[in-house]
Fold this sequence. Notes:
Order of helices and strands: HEEEEE
Shape: globular
CATH class: Mainly Beta
Largest sheet: 5 strands, antiparallel
Strand content: 35-45%
CATH topology: SH3 type barrels
CATH architecture: Roll
Number of strands: 5
Amino acid sequence: xxxxxxxxxxxxxxxxxxxxxxxxxxxxxxxxxxxxxxxxxxxxxxxxxxxxxxxxxxxxxxxxxxxxxxxxxxxxxxxxxxxxxxxxxxxxxxxxxxxxxxxxxxxxxxxxx
Length: 113
């Protein structure tokens, strides 16, 4: 077990912001197009956190042009260049899957003050 943990620690990112369910985050992803590489941002609300350690993932949901879009991001992936917390959310659940059925203002999460 120590060998596996030592191997995982080498690939984990050392500095990550505190990310909780309900937070609005900006995830910057490295996108490769042919020989060029650029960074694309994905803004949205964290609706789920799963696993732990090197396998930790967050599910981020956003609505653009009245279509909901969810992406699952492995936090320690080398494709992710940065994660910024834009605002903190005040929620009482571990998973916010009920936001999928909500539209407009009902789909908002209150801000933690």
